[in-house]
Amino acid sequence: MANNKRKLPRRNFSYYMRVLDKHTGDLIGQISDMSTGGFKLESSTPVAVGLTMELCIDQLSEISGKSFIIFTARTRWCERDPYDPTIYNVGFQLVDMTPADYDIFVKMFNSYGEQKQAHHKTNTDYIWG
To answer: Model-level pTM?
Structure first.
C-alpha cells in the first residue's frame, strides 16, 4: 500500500463494527478506518488481493432501523500490521450496495468516524511532573 491513490477523505473508526462473510457468517475483521468509498479492516488472517466478496456489517441498531447491511467489496491491498504482527490490515473498495444501505454506510462514516489527526506532537502535548 505504498502508493496512496485515495481520493476520498478517510476517518479512524472509533466503534467496534464487525464485517462478516454474507454466505458463511465468518468474521472477516473489524473496521479500523473508512471513507465513503471503502474501508480498512483489522483481520486475524490475510485476505487475497483482488478478491470480490459479498459482505455484511452488523450491529447497526444505534443508527438504523436495520440490524445489518449487505454489499459487495473488493480487496485492494493486504499487509501485516507494523505494530502487531498477529493482525493483517486489509483495504476494501465498495463495488455494489443498495442506495438505502449506502445511506446507512455514510451515516456510519459520519457517526463513528473520527477525523484523522496529524502526528505532530510536541512536549506541550504531555503532562510533565
So the answer is: 0.77
- The pLDDT score that the predictor gives to residue 52 is 98
- Report the DSSP beta bridge partners of residue 75: 92
C-alpha dist (Å) from residue 66 to 41, 59, 74, 93:
22, 9, 24, 22
Alpha-carbon distance 95 to 61, whole Å? 24
Rounded Cα–Cα distance for residues 11 and 112 (Å): 9
Length of the chain: 129
pLDDT digits (tens, 9 = 90+) for 53-78: 999 998 777 788 888 999 999 999 99
Give all domains of the chain, ordered by start, each with its CATH number.
11-114 (2.40.10.220)
